[in-house]
């Protein structure tokens, strides 16, 4: 059994389609099929059920996949420990961060880290919370930056920022004269919000339900930039992190505090438990937390 075969196997588990998996791996489909057959022969049982064009994992395939995660986790641990011998002179660091914090929380830390350690290959990916957790568990990320509450037995979280949400309205909207608004404003004002699959929207929905109503946005959009563009054009108002709204500094939008209830989320660094936290991960995390606390 070779590591290459296990890599091929894991990719096929993700795609459940031989042609797509082969394309993702950059090999010919017959080569992939041959390697999977060899692996099944060595295991002594089918790993996939092939019915027509449909491919499904067998119970044995699911068991092997779970062990593959552990195998590649241990390999990454070994690589990280060995790279420690090089200090911060070389290596890589992959971070998954919420789209709501990438633009305004990370830039200063990213720039400082790169200037201090230019030979560390740094990757910052804007992702949703669920994707960050999944990639951490599959060892595709070293660190995540997420909104709590979100708990998992295999993940460690380090909260470092309480993020306040605020209403953003067009600069000429009557609401901008108010010192603050309550969440009931969503009953009366057309709104543009993130979809229900986003943690931020789920928080808004939960708070609205405690007040006895469901938010009914006139639009749902998946990026904060597109939402604020709609607000600037007078389509409606939105609720987003105040730090982000202050960061973009759009003169056609006015930020108004929300009270009764005060809307906040807790931002945390998250990483896999029992994983060797390399020097690059530790230094980046320490600098991010220090930078945020100094500004707040």
Notes on the structure:
The chain has 296 residues and is of the alpha/beta class. The protein folds into three domains: 3-80, Winged helix-like DNA-binding domain superfamily/Winged helix DNA-binding domain (Arc Repressor Mutant, subunit A, Orthogonal Bundle); 86-160 and 266-295, D-Maltodextrin-Binding Protein, domain 2 (3-Layer(aba) Sandwich); 162-264, D-Maltodextrin-Binding Protein, domain 2, CATH 3.40.190.290. Helix content is 46%, strand content 23%. 29% of the residues are buried. The mean pLDDT is 89.
How is the secondary structure organized here?
Elements: H1 3-15, H2 18-25, H3 29-43, E1 48-51, E2 54-57, H4 59-83, E3 91-98, H5 99-105, H6 107-116, E4 120-127, H7 129-137, E5 143-148, E6 155-170, H8 185-188, E7 192-193, H9 199-210, E8 219-220, H10 224-232, E9 238-241, H11 242-248, E10 253-257, E11 264-272, H12 279-295
Parallel strand pairs: 3-4, 3-5, 7-8
Antiparallel strand pairs: 1-2, 5-11, 6-9, 6-10, 6-11
Q: Notable features of this structure?
A:
single chain; 296 residues; alpha/beta; Arc Repressor Mutant, subunit A; D-Maltodextrin-Binding Protein, domain 2; seven-stranded mixed beta sheet; two-stranded antiparallel ribbon; 12 helices; 11 strands
């Amino acid at each position: 059994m070779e590591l290459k075969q296990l890599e091929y196997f894991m990719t096929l588990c993700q795609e459940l389609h031989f042609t797509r998996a082969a394309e993702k791996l950059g090999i010919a489909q017959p080569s992939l099929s041959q390697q999977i057959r060899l692996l099944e022969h060595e295991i002594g049982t089918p790993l996939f059920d092939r019915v027509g064009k449909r491919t499904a994992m067998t119970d044995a395939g699911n068991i092997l996949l779970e062990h593959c995660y552990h195998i590649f986790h241990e390999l990454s641990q070994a690589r990280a420990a060995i790279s420690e011998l090089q200090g911060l002179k070389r290596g890589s660091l992959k971070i998954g961060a919420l789209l709501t914090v990438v633009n305004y929380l990370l830039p200063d830390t990213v720039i400082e880290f790169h200037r201090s350690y230019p030979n560390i290959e740094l990757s910052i990916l804007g992702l949703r919370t669920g994707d960050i957790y999944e990639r951490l568990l599959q060892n595709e990320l070293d660190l995540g930056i997420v909104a709590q509450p979100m708990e998992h037995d295999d993940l460690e979280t380090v909260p470092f920022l309480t993020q306040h949400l605020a209403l953003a309205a067009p600069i000429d909207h009557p609401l901008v004269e108010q010192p603050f608004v309550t969440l009931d404003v969503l009953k009366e004002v057309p709104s543009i919000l993130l979809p229900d699959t986003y943690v931020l929207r789920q928080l808004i929905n939960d708070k609205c339900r405690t007040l006895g109503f469901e938010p009914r946005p006139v639009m749902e959009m998946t990026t904060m930039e597109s939402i604020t563009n709609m607000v600037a054009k007078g389509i409606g108002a939105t609720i987003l992190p105040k730090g982000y709204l202050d960061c973009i500094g759009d003169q056609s939008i006015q930020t108004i505090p929300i009270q009764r209830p005060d809307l906040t989320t807790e931002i945390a660094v998250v990483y896999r438990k029992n994983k060797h936290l390399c020097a690059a991960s530790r230094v980046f995390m320490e600098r991010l937390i220090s930078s945020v606390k100094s500004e707040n």
